[in-house]
């Protein structure tokens, strides 16, 4: 399309809006009403999703470890937990930190209940595994359980080896006392080493170790390292369900509003085109192409759609901060529980959707309305 033709279409489109002020205003108001409803609905959906994400960021898997676990193993376990997929952060909470958090969670008058526990702190050490999404909690728990069992096998293996060696060395020393004094200390040591492969009953170290490890993970088994993995799976499942429902509602909402708005806009623009059907007929008789005739009406519909969508976006953006501020002032508890989504984040995706939808509907309405009158 030549620039001169495009310029003509734009000029005629603007002129058409000004000439038919009343019908153009009706079309703009129609678009504004539809976009307003869409913006309000999307604001509600976005804030629900934003609040859910805040709750999700606080959901974690708590991993409790025994006091007997050495510090070097704590660092090793922390690194393993960080390597788990979907774990965004790993926080180690020492006994002292757990005590301080317990004090801070209570009112100042109740915090005295914790006094005197510094010397004999009953609270356990733990890791908190923060998860990127509630949908991945089951996978994170499964991975943590693998680490739990693997570390328990290490502990049991070392314990069995030490006990096995201690028992056999003791038995060897007792046997050495019954031997003649001519036996050298070197022979005694060799006897201890050679006999340490089996205990008094003839069971080898590997057999003994295998028997001890076979019970790891049993229902009544008491772990010596990571003794508990705790998480609220029901809450995670509920949040995941809500998020998926919100996504579906958002898609359905946009589709339904688009269909309704298209129908209303087409009927409104039809009235505008109907008033100018004689103008269209004359242009057809003098040889104007359908594309040339349709051009000004497309520009007109596009402008009506954009104006009808930009105005509610501006009004909604200004009103959004005022409404949120009033809600915080009226219900001060809300801000302690959660925060609403900032207006910039909300309207950074709502404005493009509204403008594209409004402009697109205006163009579709114009093309559909003009088509009937092009057959002369």
Radius of gyration: 38 Å
Q: What does the main sheet amount to? A: 4 strands, antiparallel
SS class: alpha+beta
Average pLDDT level: 77
Straight-line distance between termini = 24 Å
The helix count comes to 12
How many domains comprise the coordinates? 2
What share of the residues does DSSP label as strand, in percent? 5-15%
| Helix coverage percent | over 70%
- List the uncertain runs: 180-196
Strand line-up across the major sheet: 2-3-1-4
H/E order of the elements? HHEHEHEHHHEHHHHH
Give the overall shape, derived from the CA principal axes: elongated
Number of strands: 4
Can you describe this structure?
This protein has helices at residues 3-19, 21-58, 71-82, 95-104, 137-178, 185-195, 205-213, 233-274, 277-285, 290-330, 333-337, 343-371; strands at residues 60-65, 87-93, 125-131, 226-230. The radius of gyration is 38 Å and the shape is elongated. Helix 1 crosses helix 2, helix 2 crosses helix 10 (290-330) and helix 2 runs antiparallel to helix 12 (343-371). Residues 180-196 have low confidence and may be disordered. The chain is α+β, with helices and mostly antiparallel strands and 376 residues long.
Q: What secondary-structure arrangement, pairings included, does this model have?
A:
Elements: H1 3-19, H2 21-58, E1 60-65, H3 71-82, E2 87-93, H4 95-104, E3 125-131, H5 137-178, H6 185-195, H7 205-213, E4 226-230, H8 233-274, H9 277-285, H10 290-330, H11 333-337, H12 343-371
Antiparallel strand pairs: 1-3, 1-4, 2-3
Helix pairs in contact: 1-2, 1-10, 2-8, 2-10, 2-12, 5-6, 5-7, 8-12, 10-12
């Amino acid at each position: 399309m030549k620039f001169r033709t495009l310029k003509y279409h734009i000029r005629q489109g603007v002129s058409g809006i000004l000439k038919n002020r009343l019908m153009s205003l009706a079309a703009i108001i129609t678009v504004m009403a539809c976009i307003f409803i869409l913006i309000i609905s999307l604001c509600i959906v976005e804030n629900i999703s934003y609040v859910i994400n805040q709750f999700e960021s606080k959901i974690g898997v708590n991993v409790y470890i025994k006091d007997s676990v050495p510090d070097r193993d704590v660092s090793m376990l922390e690194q393993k937990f960080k390597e788990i997929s979907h774990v965004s952060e790993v926080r180690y909470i020492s006994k002292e930190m757990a005590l301080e958090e317990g004090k801070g969670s209570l009112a100042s008058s109740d915090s005295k209940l914790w006094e005197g526990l510094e010397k004999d702190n009953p609270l356990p050490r733990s890791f908190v595994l923060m998860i990127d999404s509630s949908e991945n909690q089951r996978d994170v728990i499964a991975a943590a359980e693998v680490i739990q069992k693997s570390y328990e096998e290490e502990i049991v293996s070392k314990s069995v080896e030490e006990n096995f060696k201690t028992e056999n060395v003791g038995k060897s020393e007792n046997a050495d006392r019954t031997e003649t004094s001519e036996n050298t200390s070197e022979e005694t040591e060799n006897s201890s080493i050679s006999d340490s492969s089996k205990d008094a009953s003839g069971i080898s170290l590997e057999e003994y170790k295998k028997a001890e490890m076979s019970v790891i993970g049993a229902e009544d088994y008491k772990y010596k390292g990571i003794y508990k993995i705790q998480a609220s799976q029901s809450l995670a499942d509920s949040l995941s369900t809500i998020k998926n429902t919100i996504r579906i509602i958002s898609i359905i909402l946009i589709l339904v509003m688009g269909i309704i708005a298209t129908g209303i806009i087409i009927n409104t623009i039809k009235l505008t085109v109907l008033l100018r059907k004689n103008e269209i007929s004359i242009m057809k008789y003098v040889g104007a192409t359908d594309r040339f005739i349709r051009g000004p009406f497309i520009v007109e519909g596009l402008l009506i759609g954009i104006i009808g969508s930009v105005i509610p976006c501006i009004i909604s953006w200004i009103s959004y901060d005022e409404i949120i501020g009033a809600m915080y002032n009226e219900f001060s508890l809300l801000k302690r529980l959660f925060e609403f989504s900032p207006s910039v984040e909300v309207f950074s995706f709502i404005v493009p959707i509204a403008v594209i939808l409004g402009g697109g509907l205006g163009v579709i309405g114009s093309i559909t309305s003009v088509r009937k009158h092009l057959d002369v």
